[in-house]
Design goal:
About 40% of the residues lie in helices and about 20% in strands. The model has no long low-confidence stretch (mean pLDDT about 80). The protein contains 12 helices and 12 strands.
């Protein structure tokens, strides 16, 4: 419009030579292009400014508590895997609903605990609460020390959690098990054997897929199967030697054979003072546990040995077992455990 208006003005209202008129129109077209160039650059600057706004927003959000000298636990801590929870409530935001409601229980050192419940019952929220990853109320004692008074780095480094999809780093298998080069090869190979990797490879028909400490691992473990990643995560937990090990539906995405190998390793290779909390996807995974916790809507409905819970008429665990296709096997596993 600017160029057309200028052309009409120069042709009909000004007595200019053809050279001057052509030169003026040429400069007008260039000026219009320059305006578009400035608009494009200003728009790009505004878009890039969104990144600065995001960074500023992250700097202003509430941060986790920083380590303080008073929060350093004793050097011997934790000496056992005892966990005591008193009136624990949790929520994901300050104004959000409670996902855990006045939960109380005690786990002795060395006990194997299974956690079951339907979707949304609070199983994963319980594990996040123990690690102080969400807002909590109440008291949690880990080896007689209240976790709310312990620095987060000290607390989380003393608890090992194996998620449903464990993360692996790009590098060798040795670097994934021991990223700070603190242990020798004998201990690392022992952890792999204890986790069941060698047993799984012996049962596999693939000769070219044997893993060793020098095997290359892609980013995220993309060159490994889900079962192999879970076994490596278990081996990493064995190397760390934590007194509290949490499995958050860690075997839900793998086949039954690999699941059996991992469960056998957990039963036979973990030391007697290591407490194991298993958030179950398959009931067979936890039916031989020392105790089973049944959650519903963020509350503990039942917490006792499998054999005792199955004897409760109308009990929640009993109803879950009766609905299962492996009902007879589950009852047999619970009775074989023999703890009431």
């Amino acid at each position: 419009m600017f160029s057309a208006g200028l052309a009409a003005y120069l042709v009909y209202f000004r007595d200019q030579t053809a050279a001057n008129t052509g030169f003026s129109l040429n400069m007008a077209v260039g000026f219009s292009s320059l305006i578009l160039w400035w608009i494009r650059n200003l728009n790009e600057f505004e878009v890039q400014g969104n990144s600065l706004e995001r960074i500023q927003g992250y700097l202003k959000i509430e941060q986790e508590p920083k380590p303080v000298p008073e929060g350093e636990p004793p050097a011997y801590w934790p000496a056992s895997g005892e966990v005591r929870v008193e009136n624990l409530s949790a929520r994901y935001s300050a104004d959000g609903p409670k996902v855990l409601k006045n939960v109380s229980f005690t786990i002795k050192s060395g006990e194997r605990i299974g956690v079951v419940g339907r979707t949304g019952s609070g199983k994963s929220s319980l594990t996040l609460s123990l690690l102080r990853c969400i807002l909590t109320e109440g008291n949690v004692y880990y080896d007689s020390l209240e976790t709310s008074k312990i620095n987060l780095d000290a607390l989380r480094s003393s608890i090992t959690i194996i998620p449903q999809v464990p993360e692996l780093l790009s590098g060798t298998l040795r670097q994934n098990l021991d990223p700070f080069d603190q242990y020798d090869d004998a201990l690392l190979n022992g952890a792999l054997r204890a986790a069941g990797l060698f047993s799984l490879q012996e049962q596999s028909d693939e000769d070219g897929g044997k893993l060793s400490l020098d095997s290359a691992i892609s980013s995220g473990g993309s060159n490994l199967s889900v079962g192999q990643r879970q076994i490596l995560a278990l081996a990493r937990a064995i190397v760390r030697g934590s007194k509290l090990l949490i499995l958050d539906e860690a075997t839900s995405a793998i086949d039954y054979k690999t699941d059996s190998i991992i469960q056998s390793s957990l039963r036979n290779e973990l030391k007697g003072d290591v407490t194991l909390i298993t958030v179950a996807h398959r009931l067979q995974t936890i039916m031989d546990a020392d105790k089973i916790m049944v959650l519903d809507a963020g509350e503990v409905l039942e917490f006792d040995s499998p054999k005792a819970l199955l004897q409760i008429e109308g009990g929640r665990l009993r109803s879950l077992v009766d609905e299962s296709n492996d009902r007879d096997i589950l009852y047999q596993m619970a009775n074989a455990n023999g703890k009431v």
